[in-house]
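Example record

The entry below shows one chain as it appears in the dataset: sequence first, then structure tokens.
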Amino acid sequence: MEKIEQITDLDRSNWINVPQEFSGLNYDFSVSPERLDDNPVVEKVGKNLNLNLKSTSKDSMYRNFIGNINQEQAVKINLLLGQKTPSTKQAIDFIHLLDEGSKGKIVVYNNAGKKLEKNYLAQVRDDIVKFESPWRAEWLEDKFTKENGKMKINNNYVMSKAGILVPQYSEILDKNTSMKNKRISLDSLFKTRTEQEMVSNKTEPGNLHFWAPVNGRVAWFYADVVRVSLGCDGDPFYNDSYLGVRGVKEEKQ
């Protein structure tokens, strides 16, 4: 398959670094501390995809971000920027890193090598998982499909020249993956994830709403003053002004 190449790039010096020794992966990756906002670089990508990408909402730190994009558009935007959309694993690793750093248990740096303050890390974490206004949400990369009666997780997408998204990772969900909607503890989730980093049957109860994988649906985080949720049941064609996306990038050693 002939892949489409990125058409532009972003300054990632302020992105937060997740070391491989923390994530357990064989590479470092960095994550944007905020959802994508409009700028000339992002607008260029939007024009390539025939999208008018403009800020539609503010997060809990009063930063503007782009909404009104569905999950497929979000994944494509990031690919054309030379980055990817966080998988559920990367998103949870990121939140875990923010949580540990905000409590002073580890030192966290951005890509420029700057040590990040605990209060700042707590703010970035809370923007994703705290019960507070305004309503904000973000797409994740994972899509769930059923094959021969078994649910699969698909991610690590590339885009063909024809604009088709093709997953480079596609596996049947671990047998210990929770397939029931329930409330879970975020602290327990950090410790009890499956081999594919999904919510497990062993994840203890808590305040975070978990919506189990549904065939043809995708993963997302959303939060407001009433509910904080990790959903694996998102409609991939849904869009709203409060629903954006952040970027993730594998960092070369």
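Notes for this example: DSSP finds six helices and 13 strands in the chain. Residues 6 and 80 are 4 Å apart (CA to CA).
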